[in-house]
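Suppose you are handed a protein chain with no further information: no name, no annotation, nothing but its sequence. What can you learn? This example shows the usual starting point.
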Amino acid sequence: MTRAGIDLVVLDMDGTIYGRQFAGGISPRVRRAIAAVQAGGTPVTVATGRIFDFVRGVAPELGLTLPVITAQGAVIGDPVNGEVLYETLIEREAACRVAAWADGEERTTVFYLNGSGGRTRLVQSAPAMANGWTGWEGWDSATYDHWFGSPREMHGSILDIVSHAESRPLKFITINDHTREPDQTAALQKRFGEGVHMSRSHQYLVEGTAPEATKGHGLLWLSKRLGVQPERVLAIGDNENDIPMLREAGVAVCMGQSTAVVRAEADWVAPTLEEDGAAVALERFVLS
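A reasonable first move is to predict its three-dimensional structure. Written in structure tokens, the prediction is:
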């Protein structure tokens, strides 16, 4: 497809353009490719599980001015002025079921509670230990900070917080390393029911949002707002939470490290994150 065939680029972050192995999180080649696409007149945005606060901090260095799709599609906001344009929350009853489950598990779980102006409060279930651990798995604090964000409040019971009348549950993340135990995504979906939408966002992480909060819904919402036909959107992602977005985009690209489930949804498989696969895809479909 030629440059004229793409009117919008939507990029996942973690595993697609963002990783701990790069200084500042994003490789120089990917930064250059994103800048070149924008300079050529094709707008770029992101669709990520990261919260709006985090994306607003990254947006200026990537030159992102279009609305960004965050929290798996639960929040769409203007990264320049901080205005929340779309928001959907987990209903309190469903959120309380999840929190009660989390309180009984030796498995780190974090709830993201939205406040005014897109500001988000992070509340984490934490072991009652005096050894400085910030999660049940015993990873170093920097690892938890990278996956979940910071600052986080540590609580022995997160149900007490989530059930409060003023809490506004946006999403939650729980640890599930499926290289060491079965993938819990389907089991948790069955346990929590239709009140939440469960998706795997990483080798170690499973996330829950409101049922209508997906990256695919976010892509369609943004396309309509911008007057762009979805078939003229290039979407690039790497994990199962990107599948709804890949299905809605006219050109669907997945990363080289993606599983067979994700590859089955893609029109083209790019090189891996470490090989700057997102840049290669942008060069192929937009810049060539």
